[in-house]
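User: Before I run my own analysis I want an independent prediction to cross-check against. Here's the chain; please return only the structure tokens and, at the end, one sentence I can use as a sanity check.
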Amino acid sequence: MTDPAAYEDRVYGHTLAEMGEKVPELVVLDSDLQRATEANLFQEKFPERYFNVGVQEANMVGMAAGLALSGKKVFCGSFACFMSQRVLDQAAISVAYSRANVILAGIEAGLSSGRNGASHQAMLDLAVYRALPNMSVFVPADAVETRQVVEYLALEHDGPAYMRVQRKKVPVVLDKDYRFSFGHAGLLRQGRDLTIMASGIMVARALAAAENLAENGIHARVLNFSTYKPLDREAVLQAAEDTGAVVVAENHNVFGGLYGAVCEVLAAANPVPVNSVAVEDVFGEVGDEAYLAQKFGLTDTDIVFAAQDVLLRKRASR
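Assistant: Structure tokens:
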């Protein structure tokens, strides 16, 4: 089996092509973005099971639902802004309501879209898909987990799902022994003072922030929430009980994503102090990822500041 680090910039497409060999009923639909979505790698191996429908994303999702309801396992993808806004009616009724076996892949979500600017920086995709009944939602942390999530979706998952997919290289933070588990948060670092809950590109920054905090005697637990829905409620509640303070870090609008999901759980059962590191309800702008992370407060330093603040609130509440 190929080492995912060997193609960490195109792990989604390579894994999808490998799954085509294992799952004969797997088909892939694309809306004329096969290089961006990496669907060209599947197309090269299985041209008879690949369909480029042109620049008509909503129709693509409707076709995907029809194929799925006819017995196929279907992956279809586009930029996350289109997969969460342009196709919402089809995703809701044709896929989610119908419980169609369709995997919707959103490419370059949040600030990862960088120089494409605000129109392509999907800040609300996770909020949209969290709100759809029957829909599972995934945000892999790196190439290792992306591979495992795609394998799980192709081989085991039944029903509708949305997953974020990175197009650019991201730091590999998970080792070869890591195993993705559907609906469970991954414990990446132990800690007793607070818990940092992160997803996607923010996992590497959460780990960097935890290292920084440790140098100052603050021990942060780090949890990787690669499954947004169903949320690992037990991990959230256990972290709140054990550490008494939480920071949630995500590449998404502060409304409706992981921060909202975590607060929903804690508000009902154990309302400890919580801080958010997210995009503060604004549209993005053109720029490279490093500039945008600093401009919109998504760096590891921002996580450190959020941790220090939530610890002050934790101490004040005692």
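Sanity check: The two ends are 52 Å apart (CA to CA).
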